[in-house]
């Protein structure tokens, strides 16, 4: 008899099923361990009275951020952790966290406390009150604050970046690169399958990928200084931003990765000629040896440029570089053989040397792109 009674008690004591949160706050993290608890405390204070949760989406930080989040999550059910392996990128990270949430409203905020979480209740209220508003954006810039504390060059760059985005998005966002905003769940659902996922500018990506123009409101805030950890966004952030914009405009015609791969290929021709000339002028090497050297240097340079620019999101690091370089060189050698054979055929048919040359180069570009995307920068 005894065990039955305890069993009955245990069932009775189980908590009633509670409904899910109305608001999911997504905080992307990469090495932000010391910011986890302060952020949760700030969210709890700001969102008093709201049924909310926070999802930390961590790209396998080596400082133990995910472990810290789970430690807190064990005693606080408002806290959740999504940990991604072998991938990087703020936009794709946030997209996965959106898919893990079921709330009607979703906000994105940096985990490093630089954004002003006290805006969240106002964002939520605006979205709830105004059925026509899709997104509320935290903006660092109202017209004049733009100039404060920025050098002229940064001002100009920031201006160009903003105008470029405004043209492509056909929306007059004052701070399109903002990483702080709240949207209705349908907004994300509409965009998510078309997101580029390139780089860190998720707001630009969401706007450019939306099947319909989005209605937005902006709330000004002061971007705060970082207390713990350091920024992950390096000089190539600007590059990724331009690639994202290219993908969202030209990308409808040609895949932007292929464009980049071809651009790197062109740079290889210049490297080749430079090395060939240097070897002929400055060393006693024969023409054939110089040509072989130039070919090798250009191929290696192409590999590193592609690894750095074209496949930034999947870039090979440490020891992975060795098999990467070997498969790249092998794939390109096959490409070169096909290039010559194809060009020869076209030349026999048309007797146009330039058409044959371009055709050979184009075929090997497509082939090299295809094979290296499978063998060198394979999907993990
Ligand atoms: N999961 C994941 N993966 N998170 C990342 C990654 C990544 O690859 N890179 C950065 N993060 C996280 C950081 O841990 C931080 O919480 C947040 O994304 C922003 O990164 P920072 O490195 O602090 O960026 P920032 O301060 O230079 O720039 C931020 O503010 C700008 C202005 O609002 C970002 O939000 C930019 O997108 C934004 O333009
Ligand atoms: Mn930051």
UniProtKB/TrEMBL annotation:
EC number, as in UniProt: 2.4.1.83
InterPro entries: DPM1-like, Glyco_trans_2-like, GtrA_DPMS_TM, Nucleotide-diphossugar_trans
UniProt subcellular location: Membrane
Coiled coil: none
Classification via Pfam families: Glycos_transf_2 (PF00535), GtrA_DPMS_TM (PF04138)
Membrane topology (UniProt): Multi-pass membrane protein
Occurrences of domain Glycosyltransferase 2-like (ranges): 24-189
GO CC terms of this entry: membrane
Primary localisation category: membrane
Keywords associated with the record: Glycosyltransferase, Membrane, Transferase, Transmembrane, Transmembrane helix
GO terms, molecular function: dolichyl-phosphate beta-D-mannosyltransferase activity
Top-rank lineage group of the source organism: Bacteria
Domain GtrA/DPMS transmembrane: 261-377
GO BP term (any one): polysaccharide biosynthetic process
CDD domains: DPM1_like
Transmembrane segments: 258-280, 292-309, 321-342, 354-377
PANTHER family, sorted: DOLICHOL-PHOSPHATE MANNOSYLTRANSFERASE SUBUNIT 1
UniProt family annotation: Belongs to the glycosyltransferase 2 family.
Protein name: Dolichyl-phosphate beta-D-mannosyltransferase
């Amino acid at each position: 008899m005894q065990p039955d009674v305890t069993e009955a008690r245990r069932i009775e004591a189980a908590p009633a099923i509670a409904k899910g949160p109305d608001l999911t706050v997504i905080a992307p993290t990469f090495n932000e361990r010391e910011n986890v608890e302060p952020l949760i405390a700030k969210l709890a204070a700001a969102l008093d009275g709201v049924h909310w949760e926070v999802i930390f989406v961590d790209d396998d930080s080596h400082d133990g951020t995910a472990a810290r989040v789970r430690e807190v999550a064990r005693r606080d059910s408002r806290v959740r952790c999504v940990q991604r392996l072998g991938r990087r990128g703020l936009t794709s990270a946030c997209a996965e966290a959106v898919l893990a949430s079921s709330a009607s409203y979703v906000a994105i905020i940096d985990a490093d406390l630089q954004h002003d979480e006290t805006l969240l209740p106002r964002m939520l209220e605006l979205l709830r009150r105004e059925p026509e508003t899709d997104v509320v954006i935290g903006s660092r810039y109202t017209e004049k604050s733009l100039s404060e504390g920025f050098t002229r060059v940064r001002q100009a760059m920031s201006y160009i970046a903003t105008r470029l985005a405004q043209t492509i998005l056909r929306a007059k966002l004052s701070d399109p690169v903002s990483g702080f905003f709240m949207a209705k769940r349908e907004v994300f659902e509409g965009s998510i399958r078309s997101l580029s996922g390139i780089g860190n500018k998720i707001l630009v990506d969401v706007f450019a990928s939306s099947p319909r123009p989005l209605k937005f409101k902006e709330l000004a805030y002061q971007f705060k200084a970082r207390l713990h950890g350091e920024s992950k966004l390096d000089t190539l952030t600007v590059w990724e931003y331009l690639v994202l914009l290219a993908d969202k405009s030209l990308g409808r015609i040609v895949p932007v990765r292929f464009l980049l791969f071809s651009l790197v290929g062109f740079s290889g021709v210049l490297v080749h000629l430079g090395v060939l000339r240097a070897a002929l002028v400055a060393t006693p090497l024969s023409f054939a040896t110089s040509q072989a050297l130039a070919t090798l240097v250009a191929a290696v340079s192409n590999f590193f440029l592609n690894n750095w620019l074209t496949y930034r999101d999947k870039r090979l690091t440490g020891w992975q570089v060795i098999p990467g370089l070997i498969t790249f060189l092998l794939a390109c050698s096959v490409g070169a053989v096909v290039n010559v054979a194809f060009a020869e055929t076209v030349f026999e048919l048309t007797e146009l040397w330039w058409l044959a040359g371009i055709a050979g180069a184009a075929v090997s570009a497509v082939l090299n792109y295809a094979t290296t995307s499978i063998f060198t920068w394979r999907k993990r």
